[in-house]
Every structure is written in C-alpha cells, then in structure tokens.
Specification:
mainly alpha; two-stranded parallel ribbon; two-stranded parallel sheet; binds adenosine monophosphate
Length: about 210
C-alpha cells in the first residue's frame, strides 16, 4: 500500500487483512514497537521517525528480512513499504528468491487539506495499535481504546511541524514509485477521501476486479 501519511493506509490494511485473510505488516508499526525499548536501534530510529524522515533503506531491509520474511505466511498486505524505488527493487528480489510476486500496488490518494486535518485528529492505542479519528471514528469513551481500555495517544510524528515534512518526503518519492509499479501493470489507484467504509468499498472493487 502506497499513500501519503493520513490517507488511511493502516485502517484500510487492517480491513484488507480481515476481508481477504492475509497478514498485515506495517513497517511503521514495526519501527514504533522497536522505539518502545531503549536499544541502540531504537535511538537510531528515533532520529528519523520523530523528524518525519525516512529510515535509511539498509535498516528497513534488515528489519523487513528479519520480521516479514521470517514468517511463513504466504499472503500479505504490506502497509507503508516499499516507500521508494530502491526498497521496491529490494522487495522484488526477496520475493523472486521465494518464487513470490506482488499482485497489486495499491495507491491511495487524497487532497492535502484532508490529510492534514485527519492527522491532527488521529489518536492511536499504544498497546494494541488501534487507530481512531476524534471526529469521524471516535472511541466510545473519550481518549480510551475501545478494544483494550488503554489511554490513547497522539503519535509524536503527527504533530504539525513533522506532518509537513512527512508530506514533502512522500511527494519526493512517490512519483518514481508510482511509475515503477505502473510499468509492471500492477498499480491500482483508489480515492482515499470519505469514510473508512466508503474507501474500503472502492478498494474491494479494485482488488476483486483486478
Ligand atoms: P508510518 O506509520 O507508515 O507513517 O511510518 C512512520 C515513520 O516510520 C515514517 O515517517 C518513517 O520515518 C518510518 N518508516 C515507516 N516505513 C518506512 C519505510 N518503508 N522506509 C523508511 N522509513 C519508514
């Protein structure tokens, strides 16, 4: 899944995983998990993530190999990875070695104002990873996770200054990545505006038809 921050990749990837019975991997979630301990890797990652910069490809590659490619599950939805052509090429090689391939590169887009608004209202559960939007999809009890009862937080990188940088980093990389998958005829574009249900209905149509 390719898309700017705030477009709903995490929310939609969870729905795809449920509907199509595949495993959801988010490199962002994997990195946030690493950040919770005070390892050397956590300190390294923090420098990039909290500023809204991409983690260097070498680290991403190592993590992807160790976490995702250790798993025997055959079918995945990869959320937030690959983020640039170099990562896409490395992913292609890893898949080739296993005789696997990508069926779809799902590109979700939305107007920048929509993204900024959504990111400022996003809250996440630090314990179970559930995602809320305080306007469109609030928890039943204010700031408390419906699923596990933990207190919700705002991601450090959802604060306004970092959001701007994340959007510009995305814009710098996306064109090439888009062309890369477009040439392979697996690029599917979906409008990410509207409710999570509306967006998912579009995704389903594209995945089932493609
Ligand atoms: P996300 O949860 O996808 O918004 O990712 C949060 C942050 O994690 C990003 O702003 C990057 O700093 C880092 N990150 C996640 N996935 C990648 C990736 N594939 N390549 C480089 N950095 C990544």
């Amino acid at each position: 899944m390719i898309g700017p921050p705030g477009v709903g990749k995490g929310t939609q990837a969870t729905k795809i995983a449920d509907e199509f019975d595949v495993t959801h991997y988010s490199t962002g979630d994997i990195f946030r998990e690493v950040l919770r301990d005070s390892s050397g890797l956590a300190k390294k990652l923090e420098r990039y993530i909290n500023k809204g910069e991409l983690v260097p490809d070498g680290i991403v590659f190592k993590v992807v190999k160790e976490v995702i490619f250790q798993n025997r599950t055959e079918d995945w939805v990869l959320d937030g990875y690959p983020r640039n052509v170099n990562q896409a090429e490395m992913l292609g090689k890893l898949l080739d070695e296993r005789g696997q391939h990508l069926d779809h590169a799902l590109y979700i887009f939305a107007n920048e104002n929509v993204l900024i608004k959504r990111l400022s209202r996003r809250r996440v559960c630090p314990d179970c990873g559930a995602i809320y939007n305080m306007e469109m999809n609030p928890p039943e009890v204010d700031e408390i996770c419906d699923k596990c009862g933990a207190s919700l937080i705002q991601r450090e990188d959802d604060k306004p200054e970092t959001v701007k940088n994340r959007l510009s980093v995305f814009m710098e990389e996306v064109r090439e990545l888009y062309d890369f998958y477009d040439k392979k005829n697996i690029l599917r574009e979906v409008n990410g505006e509207g409710s999570a249900e509306e967006v998912f209905a579009r995704i389903k149509e594209v995945l089932e038809g493609g």
